[in-house]
Structures are given as structure tokens and as C-alpha cells.
Amino acid sequence: xxxxxxAQASLEAxxxxxxxxxxxxxxxxxxxxxxxxxxRPAAEMFGYRADRLSRAPAASVASFAGVGNPHxxxxxxxxxxxxxxxxxxxxxxxxxxxxxxxxxxxIGIDLTRVRSAVVPEFQFRKGDTQNSAEAFGVxxxxxxxxxxxx
Length: 150
Ligand SMILES: C[S@@+](CC[C@H](N)C(=O)[O-])C[C@H]1O[C@@H](n2cnc3c(N)ncnc32)[C@H](O)[C@@H]1O
Prior knowledge:
- By secondary structure, this protein is α/β, with parallel strands linked by helices.
- It has one domain.
- The protein is 39% helix and 11% strand.
- The chain has a 3-stranded parallel sheet with strand order 1-2-3, with helices on one face.
- The longest helix is centred in the first third of the chain and has 26 residues, at 3-28.
- It is globular and about 50 Å long.
- The termini are far apart.
């Protein structure tokens, strides 16, 4: 391995640790200070519907750390499989589980083992999204919190 490749690998490992610590913290102590918007105020700012925020488990709303709202345009249908890459405390996965219903499923993948709610359609797997979807045994893919190109 060259020095550059080694340095890159070392930086990536440091960054990944920081990501894990930060999102673990927002999940466990959502009332703390963070450099990003989070919780219900953030979800409201991104246009999450009030009825969904009231229906979702309070912990997943309080620890919400998304950067956008994928639900208004995603058109998820009953029976579909959704892969939520970076599912965090699970608000997006839970809202997706309502859309796909009992005949569908939502698989959430996150570096942190954080899941604030259990719903039958939502399966959580601890993992790195840098692995391919096939590595998680799924064919349908949705990536949350990405802003579609205009
Ligand atoms: C913007 S937050 C997602 C918030 C989530 N959609 C919600 O409903 O609260 C991003 C998440 O991606 C996770 N993450 C970042 N890099 C990752 C990676 N390489 N593999 C898996 N998860 C990752 C973080 O741990 C964090 O929970």
C-alpha cells in the first residue's frame, strides 16, 4: 500500500468513528447541542406532515437527523421493498413501512446500532452502506435524504 492510500484509509477510519459517535449521541441524547438541525423542528422544517410526526414513535422523531424529506415524492407502493441507507433512529424507515404495508418490507442499514422503534415491516441491519445492496440481500433500493436533481 502506498503512503497516500494508507493515509486515506486512516482518515476514512477516523471519519467513520466520528460519524458513529455523532449519530449515536443524537439518538441517545437528542436534547443535546448539535451542529445540525434535528428532532421535530428539523422534520417540520423539511415539510414532514404533522400527522406522521404525531403517529411515529416519539423517540424516532426526537432523534430524527435527516437532511431532507424523501416521502412526498417517493411514491412507495404497498408490497414494495425499501432499503433505507443510513436509517439512523428510524423515522424515515417507519414512515416508509406505513407506505409499503404488511406485504412490503423496509430494511434499514446504519453504521450505528440505533433503532428506536420496532414495527413488523422494519428490519434493521448494522452495516456500512459502502457495501453493495446485494451484500444485504435486497434488490430494491431507495436512498433516503438525498435531494433529487432539479
Ligand atoms: C442524515 S442521518 C439519517 C437520518 C434518518 N433517515 C432518520 O430518519 O433520522 C444519516 C445516517 O447515516 C448513517 N451513516 C453514515 N455513513 C454511513 C455508512 N457508510 N454506512 C451506514 N450508515 C451510515 C449515520 O450513522 C446516520 O445515522
